[in-house]
Amino acid sequence: MTSDHNQTPIVVWLRQDLRLADNPALTYASASGRPVIVLYLFDTDPDQRPMGGASLWWLNRSLTALSSSLQAIGSPLILREGKASEVLPQVVTETGAGQVVWNRLYEPSAIARDTALKAALKATGVEVQSFNAALLNEPWTVETGSGGPYKVFTPYWRAARAKVGQQPALPAPQSLMSPERLPHSDILADWQLHPTKPDWSVGFDGWTPGEAGALENLNNFLDGPANDYAEGRDQPGKTGTSRLSPHLHFGEISPRQVWIAAHGASATGDLNEGARDKFLAEIGWREFNHHLLYHFPTLPTANFKPGFDGFAWQDDAKGLKAWQRGLTGYPMVDAGMRELWATGWMHNRVRMITASFLIKHLLIHWREGEAWFWDTLLDADLANNAAGWQWTAGTGADASPYFRIFNPFSQGEKFDPKGDYIRRWVPELARLPNKVIHRPWEATSFELSTAGVTLGKTYPRPIIDHANARARALSTYARLKDDA
């Protein structure tokens, strides 16, 4: 390679890897000796699923944090909007870049786009290299004994865990050399990622998007709730989970950094091994979901189990709206849906309860729920979202059986026995006694009046009877089996 070629810029195309540390593409570029252009493309290609509103809010904050971090080591963040298939080659031409590097994504449309871009760039003499920065194990590296993909989590995670190893995370570059002439950059504010008219994100301020916020979340979790994770993870009224999911989705922290930190805390005695393994199994679920999406690319749109294709889903616009607004008359369901709208996040136990209610109480297709979560979750992730909804529906891989129907009342009484979670997110029920807060229609007239609750006015009656809904779901499922 000639010295002149060594001086041509290298473009680092960032996507879901908005961090400096443990970023293989950025590390490679830093070590190349070339001037570095760090680029984020807001891809408007209609073949790429557009981000939901909550994700756009997070992206705005995360890019702001990343821009500051890059500026501190000598490299501005270049922003461009448009179709990546067109804009990336334009940036290469403008800058005379001799190489483009990126970290791999695993969504079907992203794979297709990246494969085509790699071929097009190489055809013009531009070097292209990609890396793994998002997973402990890439999807094709974990195989069954017969060489195929796993469809059941436990054997998958057993095999995947054995492959991880303990290699250290890559340090953040201390400096980056910028080219003498930088390409034009959009102004982030012009992308209008922050919601206005109205600004529905006021409750999101408890989050700190960016690499520093991700590390702080991880450290706070390992220093406190982690040891009680096995039980705390099911109690929505307590801070018992890491809340790392949006940070992981946007790549502000890598799963390897989480893996190393958890094992480090265990080695020093600050975290018991049982809690560590339970927590890391959730990282394993994320890995498994990406494994499934890679091998079964129709997962977001089609039943993994085609035997459900004839299921008699209901067209219930009124029920869907009540569910979305948290006005079903089922306190645990309503609390979860309101938490989601207010904060962009929902506790995992409650995600299962709310999803089961939509699918099995209302018989509304899981794709409707997946679409709502995609728009309202800060951690909306194609693999996790699709696999999670299919798991609850019973249509997915290693799924909960369809006939397992969550009882929202007993789930609430078991995991929120004092009603702390209900009182926070359904404040109109806050003054009800613990014994009836999950079943307000069973309260006496005195209890209701004392609490200021008028069923049907201040809080809705259940939009469907639980026993009838359960019987209808099982009957519909039985007919599906009979027709199979």
Please tell me about this protein's structure.
- It is built from 20 helices and five strands.
- The N and C termini lie far apart (63 Å).
- Strand 4 (99-103), helix 5 (108-123) and strand 5 (127-131) form a beta-alpha-beta unit.
- The mean pLDDT is 95.
- The chain is globular, with a radius of gyration of 24 Å.
- Strands 3-2-1-4-5 form a five-stranded parallel beta sheet, sandwiched between helices.
- The protein folds into three domains: 3-134, Rossmann fold (3-Layer(aba) Sandwich); 135-165 and 211-295, Serine Threonine Protein Phosphatase 5, Tetratricopeptide repeat (Alpha Horseshoe); 306-483, DNA Cyclobutane Dipyrimidine Photolyase, subunit A, domain 3 (Orthogonal Bundle), CATH 1.10.579.
- It has 484 residues and is mainly alpha-helical.
- Helix 10 runs antiparallel to helix 11.
